[in-house]
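INFO batch 0412 | record 1 of 1 | parsing
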Amino acid sequence: MNAVLLVLGFMVLIKGADILVDGACLLAKRLRISDLVIGLTLVAFGTSAPEFFVNIMASAKGATDIALSNVVGSNIANVLLVLGIAAVIYPLEVGKGTVWKEIPLSLVAVTLLLLLVNDAIIDESAVSALTRIDGMVFILFFGLFLYYTAGISKDIKGLPTPPDMAVGYTRIAAMVLAGLAGLVLGGHWVVTGAVRIAEHYHISQSLIGLTIVAVGTSLPELATSAVAAYKKNSDIAVGNIVGSCIFNIFFVLGISALLRPIPLSAGGNVDISVALIAAVMLFVFMFTGKRHRLDKWEGMVFVGVYLAYIIFVIKRG
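INFO prediction complete | emitting C-alpha cells
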C-alpha cells in the first residue's frame, strides 16, 4: 500500500505540474513573454513545483533528510539525466546569455549550498545544517534571479502576437488552481509513502530522497525537456533545467530551511559535490565540440555518469 501511495502521489504530482505549466504558459503567451523567460521562470517553477511541495510536506513532517536529498538528487537528475536524454534526442543549441549568466548562476547556487550547509567545517559548529538564516540568504538570491529575469524579458523585442487569445483569464486561473491542488495532494502522498517505505525496510530517508523521490519529482522536467528537444526548442529544454536547478536551491531549499532547519545527513557532502560537478560539466561542455551546444555524445556522457552515480548511491545506502 505504501508503494501504491507513492506511485499515486507521483501521478497526481506530475498531472498537477502539467496543468499548472499549461496555465502559466497560456498566461505568458497572452502577455507576450519570450520562450527563454518562460523556460527560466514559469516552466521552471511549474516543473520544480513537485520538489517544492514534497519539501514543504517533508519539513512539516520532520523528514528533513528527504527535504535536502530530494533537492540535491533532483538537481543531479535534471542536469545529468534530463539534459542528457534531451541532448541525445536533439543537440541543444544554447544562447550566449544562458552560457555566461544562467548556467554560472546555477553553479553559484550549488557552491553556496555546499558552503552554507557545512557549519562544522567552516565555523567548527557542533552540527552542520541549513539554518533559517541560510534560508533567508537563499531567498535573497532568488529575488536577485527574478530581478535579472525580468530584465531579460524587457530586452527581447519583436515577439509575435499570441497565437491563441480564445482562452480567457478565468480558465487560466482555474487551471493554475487545479494544478496547485494536485501538487499539494500528490506531495503529501509521496512524502508519506517514502517515509513509510524507508521505515519498513530500515533504509535511510536520504537514499529514498536521492533516488526514488528525486527521479519521481524530476519527471516533469524530463517530459518537458524531452518534448522541447523533439520539437527543436532548445530555449525551453535548457532554460527549464537551468531554471529548475536555480529554483530548487534558492527557492525550494530556502523556504524549507525557513520552515525547519535542515541537518546535513551522512554522505551529504558527496552528493552536493556530485551536483557541483554536474554543473561544472554542463558549463565546460558549452565549449567542447560545437561551441554553445550540448551534442549527442555529451548527452550520452551525462547519462552514463548519472547511472554510475545511482549505482554508487545504492551500494552506499
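INFO post-check: The CA atoms of residues 7 and 190 lie 8 Å apart.
INFO record closed
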